[in-house]
Amino acid sequence: MAGPRQPIDLLEYKGNKHLTKAETEARRAAEVKAPPPKSKRVKPPAYLPESLHKKFRALAKQLIEIGILAEIDYDCLARYLLAEQAYLAVTEQVNRAIANQAISLLEDLSKTQTRYFNQCDRAAAALGLTISSRCRLVVPKPPEDEAAGDPMAEMLRERAERRRRA
């Protein structure tokens, strides 16, 4: 079974796929890239509670800096914050139930907590807020000293650089 489609820059770096220039350009043209936000002032969606606006702006700023957030992703970030807020509220209720030894409430609360945790986790992964999702989003850079002194490796590296710039 084939894995997920990877960006052409990552394929070139890995060197596992040998594509012609025409195939490379066709794949590069077909890649979907969302434009970065138009302004530096990030506006949270209207449905997001005022209490989450500051956190929304802080996270949005960080995600924009690393180049993975566009305006079309603002709703996804808002959904993440809402899911996180709901998860934290239910977790607080679970902690109170444990402290009060209210075992009858604990089963239902823990199921709800699991649902909210899963929502929050999926939204975080979609935004690149988890370690594993960031590793999938970032194109790794080759180590500098790996091929030092190897003329063939240097020639291949220069060729790959020229292709990226073209």
From TrEMBL:
It comes from the Bacteria. Residues 24-44, 141-166 are annotated as: Disordered. Residues 155-166 have a biased composition (Basic and acidic residues). It holds the Pfam family Terminase_4. InterPro entries: Phage_term_ssu_P27. This is Phage terminase small subunit P27 family. It comes from Agathobaculum ammoniilyticum.
